[in-house]
Specification:
alpha/beta
Length: 338
């Protein structure tokens, strides 16, 4: 929620289709390019706080929206509103509103292992609007080409065979009717799973079948990671408070994906659109036992012509856990590709 996280630089815009987006917009200096920052779940533009400050200080323009269902952006109840093509069009409309032609896209989270926001969304921008992107940075999770209908159970079977355990065990819970209520009722429980100190906690209590429901039904907790302060957790909780919408609207991304609402749009893509032709960086995280680095590179490399891969010893929240390293990697990649 940009108005809570960044009150002095928070903006809103009503797009031509009637949807309102909240976002951060900082103009560049010395003709440097814009960087578009796409967050994941459970997140918002606030989780780019270290990158917004750094990139702006380096002279780069920044656009960091609260994606649909989050923060100051509209929160439709119908999962059909969360189709990736529709939301891609909305982000392009936001760039048009700001009179921005092209951007460097940076997405966090994933297409096939933890989340379906930042990185998958960046991948779909690459599919639908490649002419608007200069280059791509996938943090934690790589690109997954839209090659057919989505099946959470098929993915879990494949990852169990490949790495010994399922990674999407929580998806059916997230798409269930009572998930939002269970997640909204206890912020400490949700925070402890989101920002757990031990990355193994996510594997045991999120990835495996039934584990996420048990976590929230039993109101479990765990030690918190040191890279988020009590004040930062309080801000996160204000953004996801039930009275501002809570977890329900963001969970519609999962419902749309499980219901294969994106499949008709993706089936219409020309085959050449499935491949990314422009410079791409994948930053994997060795301590993310859900977004396994080897799997991410294996998924990404066949579809990306010009791929660099870097690895950091972090868990899922790489941009929060090691912001200085991430910032330097971003700066160097941008300089190389612009």
């Amino acid at each position: 929620m940009t108005s809570i996280a960044f009150p002095s630089i928070s903006k809103t815009a009503r797009l031509p289709n009637g949807t309102t987006y909240g976002f951060v917009h900082l103009e560049p200096s010395n003709h440097k390019p814009y960087v578009l920052l796409l967050h994941g779940f459970p997140s918002s533009s606030y989780d780019w706080r270290h990158q917004i400050k750094y990139l702006s200080a380096e002279g780069y323009g920044v656009v960091a929206p609260d994606l649909l269902g989050y923060g100051d952006t509209d929160k439709p109840k119908d999962p059909a509103a969360y189709r990736l093509k529709k939301m891609s069009e909305e982000v392009m409309s936001l760039l048009d509103h700001l009179k921005i032609d092209k951007v460097i896209g940076v997405g966090h989270d994933c297409p096939d292992c933890k989340d379906i926001r930042g990185a998958l969304f960046l991948g779909r921008l690459a599919n639908y609007f490649p002419e608007r992107l200069i280059s791509y940075v996938f943090l934690d999770i790589g690109y997954l080409a839209p090659t057919g209908p989505f099946s959470v159970d098929a993915i879990n079977e494949a990852t169990t065979e490949a790495i010994g355990y399922e990674v999407f065990g929580y998806w059916h819970f997230f798409a269930s009717a009572d998930a939002a209520e269970l997640m909204d009722r206890d912020a400490k429980c949700a925070d402890a799973l989101c920002y757990c100190a031990d990355p193994e906690t996510l594997k045991q209590n999120l990835a495996l079948y039934g584990a996420a429901r048990a976590w929230f039904e039993e109101r479990k907790t765990a030690p918190m990671a040191p890279y988020v302060s009590a004040e930062e957790i309080e801000t996160h909780d204000r953004i996801f408070a039930a009275e501002t919408g809570g977890y329900g609207p963001p969970l519609n991304w999962y419902k749309a994906q499980i219901a294969n609402l994106n499949t008709p749009d993706e089936a219409s893509l020309a085959k050449e659109r499935l491949h990314i032709q422009k410079p791409t960086l994948l930053v994997t995280c060795t301590l993310d036992y859900v977004g396994v680095p080897a799997v991410q590179e294996q998924n990404t490399r066949p579809w990306v012509k010009n791929l660099q891969v870097k690895e950091l010893a972090t868990g899922h929240w790489v941009q929060l856990e090691k912001p200085d390293e991430v910032n330097k990697i971003l700066k160097n990649f941008i300089k190389e590709t612009t």
